[in-house]
Design a protein that fits this description.
With 233 residues, the protein is mainly alpha-helical. It contains 10 helices and 5 strands. The chain has 2 domains: 35 residues, no CATH class; 172 residues, Glutaredoxin (3-Layer(aba) Sandwich). α3 packs parallel to α9, α4 packs across α7 and α7 crosses α8. It starts with 17 loop residues before the first helix and ends in a 9-residue tail after the last helix.
Length: 233
């Protein structure tokens, strides 16, 4: 099951912490509709990961998604499901994954969902999958129907089973192989297109604080802890 607890905090608290933002996700996103200056580029966070990697799942569910929920107007997230997989273009099974065939299918499902649903819906669906006990079974029907009800599972399945899914995975393979320095483990995080050990450590310990510090524009209320008054309209 994937319970959706009701928000039990006042408006000034909706984006105050990662834990509250998860509970008050809808309300926190409404607060963030008060958008900062869009002329300042957002902080770009790219995650290279695997769908069944335990550490990747922890980072997505405890750091990346909660931080994006609060700071989506000052950060841009790119998800690249591939990780330590290997590509064999001439083989019957062109991809081999660290956690076996189920992970290859999970990677491809998530790549297809990103392609088919758009970034915001895809991130919600992938968070739903990665926070569930069974990543693959959570995708259909629960997570897809919850966050992208207009997309039929048959559309995702056609992508996974057809040529499009392999094209998307090849694209992710190319992006992953192009990393400089090359990745040596997952999750692997780049900030504004660059990897450093210092940034990686900061992202893993408090991505929220890091994004707030790196953003060059006016800090949103979630970063400053200021109370926000919502317009009822």
């Amino acid at each position: 099951s994937h319970p959706k607890p009701a928000c039990r905090y006042p408006p000034s608290q909706w984006c105050r912490s990662l834990e509250i933002a998860l509970e008050c996700k809808k309300q926190c996103m409404e607060v963030n509709a008060i958008r900062p200056n869009q002329t300042v580029p957002p902080v770009s966070v790219t995650l290279y990961y695997e769908s069944m990697c335990p550490d990747c799942r922890i980072f997505i569910t405890q750091q990346l998604f909660p931080t994006w929920t609060m700071l989506q107007d000052i950060m841009a997230v790119t998800l690249v499901p591939y990780g330590n997989a290997q590509e064999f273009p001439s083989a019957n099974s062109p991809f081999s994954c660290q956690h076996g065939e189920p992970e290859c299918r999970g990677n491809m499902i998530e790549a297809c969902i990103i392609h088919l649903t758009g970034h915001s819906a895809a991130f919600h669906i992938i968070y739903c999958m990665e926070s569930s006990a069974d990543v693959l079974n959570a995708a259909q029907p629960q997570c897809l129907q919850l966050y992208a009800p207009s997309i039929a599972w048959s559309t995702v399945d056609s992508c996974v089973e057809g040529g499009l899914g392999y094209q998307l995975m090849h694209k992710n393979a190319v992006m992953t192989r192009a990393l400089n320095p090359a990745h040596t483990y997952v999750p692997w995080v780049t900030i504004n297109g660059e990897y450093t050990e210092e940034n990686e450590d900061k992202a893993m310990s408090s991505l929220f604080q890091m994004v707030c510090q790196l953003y060059k524009g006016v800090k949103p209320p979630a970063c400053t802890g200021a109370a926000v008054r919502l317009n009822r309209s």
